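Backbone-to-sequence.
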């Protein structure tokens, strides 16, 4: 019987189910979300630190180092100074600059560097134009033919650059009477100047000026406007013949008698002149933006009204008005 009982005892089979990877299939997503959140908080902290000024950082550090001292013992402007009765110490955080600020705006460091670089460029350009001026003076002094024209050549620095003016004389004209035909001495001078100007990269403006004596045909025909423009363009051709590149000339204009050298004597021969302006970079930008050039020398603009420089002896001797029939 005992043997039969053992045979009748039920057999229990225990099966263990293994979960494997399926039981935690979404756990990595939670871990990744926590990691992304931590990284976002880290980068947000870095952004805030980068946009916080040194004054802000010092004020925060001082507060956490000794909050009671900052809040009660120290005097002076500090955080909360504008809205609390108790004065705080350190910098006033409400008036410090940051990327987003409630106080005064300070110039970015990059802007300051740009201004300093531009000022250095202006100084270097001014020194280059001064050197060019001395070079033109030496060229005139070293040429026997041109030395006789030294009284007709005026060099000065204006707000727009170096201005080279060649003025007329009755006994030593630059052009044939009433025309734009260049005289031989004037041609040689312009070509020598053109050769020198090849050594600087600045662009040029050429201006033609005449006296106030009208033509017999009147202003409706060929007038001082056409004559001054033709003479300025003839001067441009001589500069190019001397070696100057054609694209270096930015403007050629005739001003007739609108800007006399001697306003008190509009018919004086000195009013008949050619102006070559070696422009600064600032003047070039002003022309491209539609602005106007200034004909005033630097010293005159700072001092106030424009004054006509005293004429050289040779110019003063020839400053008698010419008749319209014998005009230059």
């Amino acid at each position: 019987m005992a043997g039969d009982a053992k045979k009748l005892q039920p057999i229990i089979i225990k099966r263990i189910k293994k979960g494997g990877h399926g039981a935690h299939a979404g756990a990595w997503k939670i871990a990744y979300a926590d990691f992304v959140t931590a990284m976002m908080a880290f980068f947000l902290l870095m952004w805030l630190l980068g946009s916080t000024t040194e004054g802000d950082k010092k004020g925060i550090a001082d507060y956490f180092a000794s909050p009671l001292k900052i809040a009660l013992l120290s005097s002076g402007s500090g955080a909360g100074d504008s809205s609390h009765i108790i004065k705080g110490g350190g910098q006033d955080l409400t008036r410090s600059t940051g990327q987003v600020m409630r106080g005064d705006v300070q110039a970015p460091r990059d802007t300051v560097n740009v201004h300093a670089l531009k000022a250095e460029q202006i100084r270097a350009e001014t020194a280059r134009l001064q050197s060019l001026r001395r070079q033109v003076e030496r060229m005139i002094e070293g040429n026997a033919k041109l030395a006789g024209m030294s009284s007709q050549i005026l060099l000065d620095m204006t707000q727009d650059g170096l201005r080279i003016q060649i003025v007329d004389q009755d006994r030593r004209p630059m052009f044939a009477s009433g025309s734009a035909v260049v005289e031989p001495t004037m041609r040689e001078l312009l070509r020598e100047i053109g050769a020198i100007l090849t050594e600087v990269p600045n662009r040029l403006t050429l201006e033609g000026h005449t006296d106030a004596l009208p033509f017999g045909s009147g202003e409706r025909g060929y007038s001082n406007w056409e004559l001054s423009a033709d003479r300025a363009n003839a001067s441009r051709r001589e500069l190019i013949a001397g070696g100057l590149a054609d694209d270096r000339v930015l403007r050629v204009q005739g001003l007739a008698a609108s800007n006399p050298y001697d306003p008190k004597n509009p018919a004086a021969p000195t009013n008949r002149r050619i102006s070559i302006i070696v422009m600064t970079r600032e003047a070039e930008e002003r022309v491209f933006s539609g602005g106007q050039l200034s004909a005033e020398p630097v010293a005159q603009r700072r001092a106030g009204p424009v004054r006509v420089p005293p004429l050289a002896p040779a110019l003063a001797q020839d400053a008698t008005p010419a008749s319209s029939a014998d005009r230059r």
